[in-house]
Amino acid sequence: MSREEALQILQEYTKGESLLRHARTVELVMRAYAQKLNQDEEQWGNTGLLHDADYEAHPDRHPHVIVNLLREKGEEEMAHAISAHYSHWGVSYDTLLDKALLACDEVTGFVVACAQVRPQRLDGLEAKSVLKKLKQASFAASVDRGEVRLGAEMLGVDLTEHITFIIGTLQAHAEELQLTPMPQSAS
After folding, report:
1. From CA 89, how far away is CA 172, in angstroms rounded?
2. Which tens digit of pLDDT belongs to each residue from 100-129?
3. Which of 21, 33, 50, 92 shows the greatest Cβ crowding within 10 Å of its Cβ?
4. pTM over cut 0.85
5. Domain that holds residue 167
6. Helix 76-83 with 96-116: angle, nearest 10 deg
7. Is residue 98 in a domain?
8. Contact, 22 vs 51, CB < 8 A?
């Protein structure tokens, strides 16, 4: 599947700016990990891009709608990884792609949330600040901290290094993601 086809599917199902940005951030991180781990960048990126594609349009049937669509298109590996991107669904983790998507989804969203509350956004954001925020249950309360830790463990990466890698990946795209420092007000 080409990125253009994946993007078309995403835009058919997803309209909200926040969810579209989340899809893009997870795509970027998945592509970066694919490159680092010598995997298929297009497949990994598209999996990240589409992992929540049906969430807005079909929240009660997520992720089954996108999984079934991908299976119809012969994209079984992508479909399986997306069906497993939340450990409580009880789907097996058979491939590196499955584990990477679990490892990148929640924590990437959390890193973005951390950046959004800082005037400098991603600029100067460090893993230690993100880890500190992870301990605050009230901050980005919908993020499952257990998934963050389990994902890094399954991927076989140190959580601090994982977060540092994600921050670096997103910093390279800060302008596109609208996560550049806020303009200073004139005093």
Report:
1. 33
2. 999 999 999 999 999 999 999 999 999 999
3. 50
4. yes
5. 3-171
6. 50
7. yes
8. no
